[in-house]
Write a structure and sequence with these properties.
- The chain has one domain: Cytochrome c oxidase, subunit III, four-helix bundle (Four Helix Bundle (Hemerythrin (Met), subunit A)).
- The N and C termini lie close together (12 Å).
- With 239 residues, it is mainly alpha-helical.
- Helix 2 runs antiparallel to helix 5 and helix 3 runs antiparallel to helix 4.
- The protein has seven helices and no strands.
């Protein structure tokens, strides 16, 4: 329960910071200037898209928070046997960081209207993400070869569960990333309206990958048992 509360507070803080940058408190009827209906429609679509992604991330964050809470409670039982974490998980973490950085660079390139840099960032993020998923499969195979099957130990069952759900979220994101990458190579993206749509797609992909990185870092800390002392301290304070 402590872990889920901490995770939800963190997610709420990040959501509050993100929403504060989305002009939710703007009063367009007080703004001075010529009304541009096309620009106003583009702003509304941008806001709707970001709010839609924010709502989805809130639901996904709640799911991961429940999994993390169940993991932290289950690991305190006597039949829990910790797993030897595969070394490849370290490389996977680095790959996901690189993917997040590549998408951030693509966002900067989109704001500066640099098509070649946008394509490079999107392609680099896609390659790193696919390599991350391949590394997760290698970690599964290594644990299975060592005899750590999902039904043999609650720790192994939770490992396969949390990594699989995180991987499924990344696969869904790769679909959107693939479409954005294909759009960046389309010749019609030279028009201002198309460039704005591409920029929005790149920004949404970057936000989603930053979320996946944050969730994975929390899961990685739990799997590596770095948070055991913190969990015990919190339990002691609440008991």
């Amino acid at each position: 329960m402590v872990v889920i509360l901490l995770f939800m507070v963190l997610m709420a803080t990040l959501a509050g910071w993100w929403l504060s940058h989305q002009r939710l408190t703007a009063k367009p009827w007080l703004e001075v200037g010529v009304i541009d209906e096309a620009g106003d429609a583009g702003t509304r679509s941008l806001l709707i898209a970001k709010l839609g992604l924010g709502a989805f991330l809130a639901l996904a964050g709640s799911l991961f928070a429940l999994l993390i809470s169940a993991y932290s409670m289950r690991m305190s039982m006597t039949d829990w046997r910790s797993l030897p974490m595969p070394i490849v998980l370290w490389f996977n973490t680095g790959l996901l960081m690189l993917a997040s950085v590549a998408l951030h660079s693509a966002v900067i390139a989109a704001r500066c209207d640099e098509p070649s840099s946008i394509r490079s960032g999107l392609l680099a993020a896609g390659v790193c993400s696919l390599a991350f998923l391949a590394g997760q499969v290698l970690a599964w195979r290594e644990l299975a070869a060592a005899g750590y099957f999902s039904a043999a130990n609650p720790a192994s069952a939770f490992f396969y569960l949390v990594t699989a759900i995180h991987g499924l979220h990344m696969l869904g994101g790769l679909v959107a990333l693939g479409r954005t990458t294909a759009r960046s190579f389309a010749p019609t993206e030279s028009t201002p309206q198309a460039s704005g749509a591409l920029r929005l797609s790149v920004e949404l992909c970057a936000i989603y990958w930053h979320f996946l990185l944050l969730v994975w870092l929390i899961l990685f800390s739990l799997l590596m048992r770095w948070t055991d002392d913190l969990i015990e301290i919190c339990r002691g304070l609440l008991s």
